[in-house]
Each structure stands twice: as structure tokens, then as C-alpha cells.
Design a protein that fits this description.
The complex is a heterodimer of chains A (about 500) and B (about 400). Chain A is an all-alpha fold. Chain A is built from 27 helices and 4 strands. Chain A has helices at about 5-15, 25-30, 35-40, 60-80, 115, 125-130, 145-160, 165-175, 185-200, 210-215, 220-225, 235-240, 250-255, 265-275, 320-330, 335-345, 355-365, 370-380, 380-385, 395-405, 415-420, 440-445, 445-465, 470-475, 485-490, 495-505, 505-510; strands spanning about 280, 295, 305-310, 310-315. Chain A starts with a helix and ends with a helix. In chain B, the strands form 3 sheets. In chain B, strands 1, 3, 7, 9, 10, 11, 12, 13 and 14 form a 9-stranded mixed sheet that branches. Chain B has a 3-stranded antiparallel sheet with strand order 4-6-5. By secondary structure, chain B is of the alpha/beta class. Chain B has one domain: Alkaline Phosphatase, subunit A (3-Layer(aba) Sandwich), CATH 3.40.720. Classes of the chains: A mainly alpha (about 500), B alpha/beta (about 400). Chains A and B meet through helix 7, helix 13, helix 21, helix 22 and helix 23 of A and helix 1, helix 5, helix 7 and helix 8 of B.
Chain lengths: ~500, ~400
Amino acid sequence: MARDPQGALIALNRFGFGARGGASGDLMNAASDPRGFVKAELARPNGALLELPGLQATPVLAEAVFAYQDEVKRAREAAAKSDASPEQPGQTRNPPATGADLPMASPSPAAPQAASLSPQAGEAAPAMQAVQAKPQPQQPPNVVQKTFRAEALARLQRAVLADCGVTERLVAFWSNHFCISAGKGELARMWAGAFEREAIRPHVLGRFADMLKAVEQHPAMLFFLDNQESLGPESRAGQNRKRGLNENLAREIMELHTLGVGGGYTQEDVTSLARIITGWSFAGRNSRNAAPGSFVFNANAHQPGPQTLLGKVYPDDGLAQGEAALADIARHPSTAKFIATKLARHFVADDPPPALVARLEAVFKTHDGDLRAVTSALIDADEAWSAPLTKIRSPYEFLIAGGRLLSRVPEDPGFYLNALNTLGQPLWAPAGPNGFADTNAMWAAPEGMKLRLDLSAQLASRLGNNLDPRDMLELVAGDAASADTRRTIERAEQRQQALALLLMSPEFQRR
Amino acid sequence: MEQIRTTLLTSRRHVLLAGASFAAWAYLPKFARAADQRDPRLIVVILRGALDGLATVAPIGDPDYAGLHGAIALTADGPHPALPLDAFFALHPSMPEFARMYRDQQAAVIHAVATPYRERSHFDGQDVLESGFAGPGRVQSGWLNRALEALPRGVRVSSALAVGPTAPLVLRGAAPTVGWAPVTLPQADDDTAMRLVELYTHRDPALAAALSQGLKLEKVAFGDDMKPKPGGNQIAAMRQVARGAAKLMAADDGPRIAALAFDGWDTHANEGGAVGRLAQLLSGLDGALAEFESGLGARWRDTVVVVATEFGRTAKINGTQGTDHGTGTIALLAGGAVKGGRVIADWPTLKTASLYQGRDLAPTTDLRAVFKGMLADHLGLGERALGESVFPDSAAVKPIKGLVA
């Protein structure tokens, strides 16, 4: 097949996480058959799943958090009792990290290509970890921090090692669409990675309705949007405890997860859905009926009676009432439009071609929300290959692309997590349930670009000494590199500067 | 959604970037040089997440208030009594600094206000609040930015400003702005930056513009007290951002007009009353106002700080000791230029029949009338510009006169 260098950039950058360095041959392979290069990765069975030794299920993680919290409490009480010396009451906040530890083997990449991409021996090897390393007050990380870092590391390694990266790009897209925030509290921080592994990954190429159900029944989402606290006002628990509804999850399901603002629902519908999903909760630390931290339907908290939602009456059959409502919302025409628009905006352009959105919307409807069919339609669409590369990589995409090009499989997530914080996209911790914005206005802002440059210069100063920037440019863009970029890199005063400029070049920043 | 900060956050920077942001206009308005020696400063503070106005400035004289706000209602007595503002309204006890300013006639409250937005989505609500348009979906520019475009542009501020990743919508737009946030990343050298600008100029004009602007903010000269320190929490971060902003704005050549956003006001569950979660946040806000006052020094006399939020919360608490998304709420004014010591309200009462859709404090004042009155009196903007370009299609919304002394 003829070589198509521009198509290779689209395949690798628009749909993937960028070309890998070393002898990957990514750019050549993508240039010979751009669409096939993207689709080959999607064809792998269960390619989106992330199962590694050391990554635990949500209930196991819950038990560890509860044990840790108990330990903190005991330590605090012990300190209060032994009072005597009134100094430093704060010192007991973090107990010895031993007791509540999980067996948290840091997951190591098992993929066969790991060998060829692992860090070269030499002085520069630890640089991706070492940037910005700061002396921190020395305290052993607790089980929540350890878990978060292990989950982050597994995700980062998978993205850096992936062939094209389209699967991980889909995971990141859906994870942001159905985001929770690790900032909500210890449980959310503990569960952020598990939520993505359990509720998002199994469905990114499955049915939207299945992902929706998995997300809204996941303890992390129920906790993030308070549904475990929402009681039907006429339910037994509501009557006994004189408490009632919390609309938070119901509203965001319709506004952010499915129909979208203007998707045809009213305040009445929000309240109805809130009633319908009362009782959707997770087992607490003292539960005897279910494993703590697992989804439970608490009939005692469920608002009795039929409810009208979007003009349809749902009889009260307990858990099934909410599941039926979600199934209908998932195939609502507004949902098809909302999802089609967001997908096209993410992959193609801030203002995506209307014809493309319409086609994705139609496929969503005719295939009953089959996301494999929708994704394939996106990759098959001519618009996706003809639209210019106008979007800027998000900080996460930029950092992963850098790790791939420089062949640095992270062994510690610290560099990435710090850099994501600095660039305004802290991992699994957006400021609101709407996730991070997906536009150039968000990420190509003056301050953000300046910080990107500073970060690139830092990386290059540590890694650029042994690399030939002209070779790197061939890996990034090959024949599609502009004469201006080529000249800028060739004329750089030294290798580090050349690498910084390459990392900041339009060929590397745009997708 | 909730923004409970935990002790797990790895650094202060994380808190700052997630919890607060600051941006300022990049020029000194010409009127700063005018004959009357007035050199006004304006700070707009956006509280994202929807502030419970009834819990901040409580209508304790309204017979329905205590019942609706239930266990989290403020009271005139008890261990944490609310601070009386007049015979009817009382201020949350976490805001002693604002109460002092109010007594000194340098702070005012406008109650039962709302933007024209009547749905209950945070994001659309914030868009309306900050864009100044009557409906959502217009996110290219904010009303404060368009107000600046209507001002005669003076010399560029030369004050040292560092960088933060994003600007609040209210100040986004064609009028050039600068941002600031405490960031300690080492900087790329000038030569590399210039080469990149050159490359962008040829290949990618949009990135050239963005980076050039980012680089102009480069010469950083903030004091040690503005650098991130380990530990601390969101409350301290609010004070810290305000302190930094005030320091920049106090300089002779510093920015005159700025906007900040604080996150975390979405108190769906366990909102707390006189003490608790909202109390903590209000204490942070109160501290930020105090930092503005002390940091601006002699400039405080010419300053107006306006605090606003996208909408209010339900009058009746929900089933989880919190409040859901509502409508009417409060706006606060503070500063030496404010004609204070007043709660301005056309009180709708909290009777069931008076509540908006039977659940929310009914809005009786359009928030745009507050903004417009303040912009007219403080910055001298004409009613025509205010009604057309700054707040499009708002000619019917008359500015409230006399907010500024």
C-alpha cells in the first residue's frame, strides 16, 4: 500500500497516543495503512481490560480503607489517653502504615514489547521520575496513597506501551465523561482506579446502556454524588430517620451522563429519577448482608410507588424500577445526540462537522448504543481523516505521548501526577462532575502553553543529551514534518534545546 | 458536587489550582489618571457550586426560615449565634470580618438575587453568571472582559505576574488578561522560548499568540509569602490567593480589575449550620476579604469586591442535611468604595406560596442590575454599553443606583 504520512499522523495522534520511540516502527506501520493500524488494536479481544496482580476489587479496597480509618482512630484515641505531653497532637494523624496494607505489588508491564521500550541504561534513565522531585516531609504513604499511585501507574504504563493507544484514549474519554473525583474523600481516592477498571473498561467497546448501569451502580459514583445518603421520603428508613431525597446523582445522570442539558427533561424528571434510584447504595463498614463496599439495593430506603419519568410510568418493582429507567434513558434520542457530539468533539474538532455527528448519532440509534459500532463509524468517517489536526493534546495526552516517544516506561507515577497537577489536569480529580473540558480554549491557554514549555525544557534537559533530535523528528512525523519545524530543530543550539522544541512543535502538540 | 479536601493531597499547588484561580486585566484603565484622583479597583469573586444564600445571610426574622432550614438554620442565640445585620437578617458567625466591614459601612448584602437563568445546572448557571448573556451556551467571553473593552485602554500593567493554567470565563475574551497562580516549575530559558515563538509564528499562529502572551507574564517577582507552602488546606488556599492578588493589585502599576473563582460550594449533604462544612468555606471567604483589605492598604478606599454565585439552593433542606440546587441567593459587596451597612432586598418571604416552584427562594432582584449599577458608579460605564455589549439584551434591567459611595 502507498505510504500516507499525513494519514499516519491522524492514526497515531488523533486516534492514538503518538508514535513510540526506539525501533517501534509505529510511524512507518501507520503510514502504510492508517485505518488498519487503528483498527488492529481495537480488534483485540478484551483489549480494554486492565487486570494486574495487586489491583484489587472495590470491596477489598473498601475494607482496607475502613481498616486504615479504624487504625487512625485508635491511634488518635491512644494519643488522647496518654495525653501527658500536650505537644504535637497532629503527629498521630498517620499511624504506622503497616497494619492496613494491601499486598500492593507494583504492577509490572507484562506486555512482550516492554523489553524493547524499557529505559536505556544510563544516567538519564530515572529522569521522567526525577523531574520536580522535591524533598517532602518524610512520612510513609498510607494505604490510600499507595493504592492511588499503583492504580495510576498501571494506567500510565498501559498507555505508554500500547501499540496505537486508541483503546486507552477511549478509556480516558469515557472515564472523563463518567468522571468521579478522587478529591471527594478517602473512599473516592481509593476507588478512582477500580471504578475505571470495573465500570468503564469492560464497556468502552460494548453497549452504552451496560456502561451506564455499571457506572451508576458503582459504589464510587454513588459515593461521589451522594446517592447512598438519599432516602425515599416515604420509605421506611426515610420515615424513621426523618431524612429524604438528595437529587445530586439523578441530575447529573441526565445532564452530564446521558441526555445533556436541553435534552428534554424537567426539574420534575430530576426529582422523579432521584426517587426511582433511592436505595441504590453500597454496603457500609458494618454491613452483615453484603461485603462492605459492594453495591446493594436497600429496599428500606427506596421510595415506594410508581414514578413518572420523561412521560413514562415506571411501576415500583424495587431495583428493577431504576434499571428500567436507565435502560430507557440510555436509548433516548437526546442521549444518542449528546454522546455522538462529545465523541466527535473529542477526536475530531472543537466544532465537529455536523454530518459526522449526525452519522455517529444514527449509528448509535440503529445499533442500540453499541459503542464498537459507533467507534468504528468514527474511524471509518472521511471527515476524521480530512479534518485538519486543530486540537491540542490535553496535558495527559501530551505527557503520555512524551513518555512513548522517549521510551520511558514509568516505574513510579510521581512525575506524571505532579506534571498533571501543574498543567491543570490532576488525574481522576476534575473540579466538577462535568469532567475536564475538551477544547482548545481550555488547554491552549497562554498560561498552560508557557507551563508546557517549561515542562518540556525540564524533560529535555535531563533526557536530550543522548538523543539525536533529527531522528526523533523522523519518529514523530517523518515526511509529514514541516520544513519550519525541521529547520528549527536542526538549528537549535544544542540537543536539549532541540528536544524541547520538538516536544513543543505543532507536529507533537496538535492532534 | 462536593469538594471535600482531604489530607491526601500531595501539594498545596494542587489545592490552589483546583480550588481557586485568579486573572486580571492587562492594562491600567485611562481613568486611573483622571483629574479627580480616583483610581478604582474592582475584584469579582465567583463562588462556583451555588452558595446557600439563606445559610449565609439568614432571614431569621422570617417566620418560615427556621422550619425550612431545619437543623442547619442559624439562630440569634445559642453557642454560635448569627451576627445581626439588621432587625431581620443575620450573618453567618464564620464571617466576623465581613460583619466588621458592614458595621463600618464598607460592606453590603443584596438578597433574593438571581441571574436570568432559571434551570439548575451548575455549568449552564455559571456560564450565564459569567458570560453576562441571558441564557447559557455563550462561553466565548465574559461580561467583565466586555466591560473592559468599553473602557479607554491605558498603559499595560508592568507588574510582575506569574501564571496559572486557566482564566475564569467572566474575564475571558478579547480584552487581554493576565493570570497568576503560585507555581514553582522552573522556567525554560528565553532563547528556547523565542525559537519556539518563531516556529509557531510560521506554522501555528494560534499557539504563537497563546505562548507569547504566556511568556509576557514571565518576569515573576512575587514575595516569598506567595509561594506554595506544604500543608494547609482549602481555607488557607483561599486566603493565600487573595493575599497574592491584593499584593499585585496594590502596586502603582499593578492591575486594577481582576476576577477570582473559588470552588466547592455545592453542599448537597451535611452542609452544616453555624459550624460545619459551609461554615469552613465561609470562613475562607471571610479571610479572603480581610486579605484584600489589608493587602490593598490605602487602595482599599477605592476598591469594590463583588461576590456572586451561579444560583441559590433549596429553601428547605433535603434528606441528607444539605440543600439541592435552587434559585434565589445573595450577592455581597465589600470595599472602601461601597456604600455599605445595608441589606438590599425586596424580600419575597419564605411562605410556601412565595417560593419559586414551591422550593427555592424567589428571586426579586436581577443580579445583572447589581453588576450594572456597580460598573456604572465605580468604573463609569454608560447605560447603553451596559445594556448592549456588556450584558446583551438587558436594557430592561435597570442598574441599581447608589451601590458605590
